[in-house]
Request: fold
Amino acid sequence: MYKQEGTKVAIIGAGAVGSTTAFAIAMQQLCSELVLIDVNKEKALGEALDISHGLPFIGDMYIHAGDYSDVKDADCIIITAGIPRKEGETRLDLAKKNVKLAHVITDSIMEHYNKGVIMVISNPCDLVTYKVAEWSGLPSNMIIGSGTNLDSARFRVLISRKLGVDVRNVHGYILGEHGETQFPAWSHTHVAGMGIDEYAEAIGIPFGQDVKDEIAQQTKSSGAQIIKLKGATFNGIAVSAATLLRSITEDEHTIRTVSTRLNGEYGISGVTLDVPALIGANGVDKIIDMRLTDEEYQLLKRSEANMREAIASVEDL
Reply:
C-alpha cells in the first residue's frame, strides 16, 4: 500500500454506477488517488482490485477501498450510492427512499470533510443535490449534481444522427430538471456556429417542430428505454461524471448543464435546477443566465414548480 501525492477522488457507492465511474476515471487518469467507499466493503475492495489490475496498460494510480475517513483531503467526492430506479418508476418515485439514504451519507461525509467539491449522481439527482447542500452547510457552489449533463449529451447525439454531422459540432442544452419536466433550449442549439434551423435548411434536411418534438421526447425517455433493454444505466453517466470531474480537477472552466442552487438567476431562488454553469476547481464558478424565449422560460418555471413540490414532499426527512 502506498499513497501518491496529487489529486484525490472519493466515490461513495461501488455499485454499477460507482464502479463504472471509477473505471472511466482510471481510463482517463484523472487523479492520482481513487478510493471506493461502500457499505459492502468486499464489493468495494473487489472493484478496486479489478480496476487496478489494468493499470499497467494505462498508467499508475493508487486505487483502493476505504471508509468515510478517506474523504479527508479529497478534491472531489462523488455520491453514486442509491436504490436503483426500476422500470416504470419515475425519478421522483425514488425520492423518499434515496433522500433518507443521502442524509446518512452526507452526515458521514461531513464528519471527515475538510475540502473538495461534492458531486451528486444519485437519483433523483436534483432533489438529492438540494438536500445534500442543505445538510452539508457548504456554499452552494461546492455541491453540484450531474443533472442534465448526460441528457444534453443524449440530445446532441440524436441531433447529430438526424443531421448526419459529427456530434462534436453539435451544441445544445437540456434545461430544467433531470426528469419529466426537462426541455431543450432550442434557441441556443447550434451546429458549427449556425442556429439549428439555419443549418438544417442549409443542408436541405427538414427540421420542423414535429422533428424537434420527437428529439425532445426521445431525449427524455432515453434513460427509461435503456433500463427496459438492459436493466440499468451506468456507462453514459460514468463518462458524464468523469467529464465533470476533469472540469473540476483541472479547473477547466467548462460550461456544463448541472444541477445547482439558483440565487436569483432566471428570476428564481432557493431551488436546484439544471442550467448551464461554468465548472472549475470550486465547483460552480458562475451560473450562466441565458436569455430564453418566453416559451422556454415558462418551461423552466414549470420545472421550478415541480422541484418545489418535490422538496416539500421530503421536507421532514
User: Anything to note?
Assistant: The radius of gyration is 19 Å. The chain has two domains: 8-145, 149-313. The chain has a mean pLDDT of 94.
